[in-house]
Amino acid sequence: MKKWEWLRVERRNRLIDLHGGKCVACGYNNINVLHFHHIGPKGFSLGISQMHRDYEAVLQESLKCILVCPRCHEEEHQKLKRIDAEITQTLLDKKSLNEERKDGNK
Ligand SMILES: [Zn+2]
Ligand SMILES: [Zn+2]
Question: Between 61 and 100, whose confidence is greater?
Fold first, then answer.
């Protein structure tokens, strides 16, 4: 591995350490596979490729994230997808309701 790659890995590991070093959902603590999952507005992802950014920016970004393992991360995203789908469905329902109402006014 090149030196700059090591620096990125080191920085990422430090960040993970600051966040407790384990998955908030299940406690899995293999820091090599843990992900940052955004719960706040996402500026940029916190993958290894972003670790060259200004440390302060990376730190601030990490405050909008929770630490999760790949499995919980996937589950979290599926949950989010489901919620998204529900919201979309609700909006569609409302839309069709509105259209019906419009039709009723004719
Ligand atoms: Zn987990
Ligand atoms: Zn995520």
Answer: 61
